[in-house]
Design a protein that fits this description.
Elements: H1 3-6, H2 14-39, H3 46-58, H4 61-82, H5 90-100, H6 102-126, H7 132-169
Helix pairs in contact: 2-6, 3-6, 4-5, 4-6, 6-7
Amino acid sequence: MEKSDLKPKEDVSTLQFIGTEGGIFLASVASLYLLIWLSTNQLSTEESVNRVLMSKLQGNTVSDLGYTILALFIVYSPIGLALRYKRGGMIYRIADAIIDELPRTIYFFGANLTAVSLAGCIYLQATNDAASGKFLGFAVFFAATFFSGGCFLKSVLKAASEHEARQRAT
């Protein structure tokens, strides 16, 4: 059973595609923000907010993203090269599934950075700190960058998968 056999083929407009992906990204941001909110006792004290936000930022979130993407490419590249001329089979489906997870990985790290920035912004806004605007700017930047990158990659992967399915059908 091929990957295209597992899901019904739907014709989705660009706006529907972006809306669906945006909903997925926003759900991730909301979940991670809620985690931060609960972990800081509802953003109640500077100490708890600093502790949680710094653990996210010093926990190498950004470098983890780079390493994750690098690891996925290192894992996939030999499989992709070995299967360049042979499509189908279990190894091909596994490799295909690994690459299909890359946009979600990008969304996860982007949502994490966005949620951290939003939590900082909201806390600083509540304490009337002028730096809250900078955190809002970071949140918008991270959301736009990671969402657009993940969405673009997802659309490229989807188009390649559809092209491959059309070629198999002919």
